[in-house]
Design a protein that fits this description.
- Helix content is about 70%, strand content about 0%.
- The protein is mainly α.
- It is elongated, with a radius of gyration of 21 Å.
Length: about 70
């Protein structure tokens, strides 16, 4: 709720203009969406695993030092 003030309201006209511009320039190619999802996973998954390992190490530190 704190950040809702900063979000811009949805503008259907702007969204439609963007869609028309993308289509006018040739549209998305066949595997563009798959490539975007895979690249996002390649970025987010290692970061998430790193954070989880850090939390685990901090939680296990007293046990490991004992």
């Amino acid at each position: 709720m704190l950040f809702r003030k900063r979000l811009k309201p949805d503008d259907p006209e702007k969204r439609e203009r963007l869609r028309e511009q993308i289509e006018q320039e040739g549209g998305l190619e066949k595997h563009d969406f798959l490539a975007m999802v895979l690249s996002a996973l390649l970025i987010l998954v290692p970061v998430a695993v790193g954070v989880l390992l850090l939390v685990w190490l901090l939680a296990a530190l007293p046990v490991l030092l004992h």
